[in-house]
């Protein structure tokens, strides 16, 4: 086993104390101290450097049955993280290596070597393995190309377009020959970013007026693909603007994650009949077979600057919860990252 002698005795970590009803409240969580322990056989001890906060974590805070188990009450939460190995008893992983793993929401983590993927800090900034080259990037890639079956010449609408997934969806569509890319986001600054920096053809602030009217104005010839990150009136508007043979990939519905009552469905689903439209949900976890193809294709665009990305970086484990709440509020532009 290799190890370093300068480890602290304790690591801070975030626990879920009670299951939030509606918007999560600070008293549903606690930042607690836990002993830093040496890795057992086959394990590594990682000093986390970047933590991911993601909308799906809201789902894991509730007890509802889902594709992934709820966070346990009184225990540390989980999430994507990148860190440096500071002690290792795992074959193939040495002190000084950087790894991507799933034990976020804490400063130090003991992780099985099997669940730690080595990443190269010289190939790309470490935080990008959580965003543009990581889970959110693959979500954009798989959802657009596989679930929505994007093809050259399609007009594409994406909601949550200034966020981690949405910004990448629109740019991949542009780089792959979309006839028109339209995005919606929640502020004038975000709308400006979409058009002026990300190269969208049109964008609007969904808070400025009915989404259906703003979408019709931005896409007078209709849309062939809608990548849904939001649900609600965005989804209804997209169905209303869908062209014949249109496809809707349902990635997320952030507008309903804090609802205490079920949200009503779109009133115009019958349009799927006349348009022969298709609507299909997907989970990134089912598309990891595309991971190497995704990195091969997207990493050069990121390196050349053809595909731009933003990160909103919040510093300190003590601000991990606020960063998460900030994602739900829309404080972030691009991927929300916590830097330790
Ligand atoms: N299916 C999968 O496997 C998968 C994987 C990853 C992510 N997702 C989903 O993809 C979506 C985007 O995730 P992300 O990680 O890229 O997050 P993100 O877009 O970076 O952050 C979430 C954004 O949602 C917007 N938002 C919040 N409340 C809203 C509302 N009521 N109406 C419209 N927009 C609202 C905010 O931006 P504004 O300022 O624009 O409001 C906020 O910045 C989420 O729905 C997430 O659950 C799904």
- Could you name the CATH homologous superfamily of the largest domain? Medium-chain alcohol dehydrogenases, catalytic domain
Query: Beta-sheet strand percentage?
Result: 25-35%
The secondary structure category is alpha/beta
* Overall 3D shape: globular
Regions with pLDDT < 50 over 5+ consecutive residues?
none
**CATH architecture call of the largest domain:** Alpha-Beta Complex
Protein name: NADP-dependent oxidoreductase
Domain Enoyl reductase (ER): 25-338
Pfam families: ADH_N_2, ADH_zinc_N
Keywords: Oxidoreductase
Describe this structure in words.
The chain has 2 domains: 152 residues, Quinone Oxidoreductase, Chain A, domain 1 (Alpha-Beta Complex), CATH 3.90.180.10; 151 residues, NAD(P)-binding Rossmann-like Domain (Rossmann fold). The chain contains 9 helices and 16 strands. Strands 1, 4, 5, 6, 7, 8, 15 and 16 form an 8-stranded mixed sheet that branches. Helix 9 links the parallel strand 15 and strand 16. Helix 2 crosses helix 3. The longest helix has 14 residues. It starts with a strand and ends with a strand. Bound molecules: NADP nicotinamide-adenine-dinucleotide phosphate. The site of NADP nicotinamide-adenine-dinucleotide phosphate has 29 residues, from helix 2, helix 3 and helix 9.
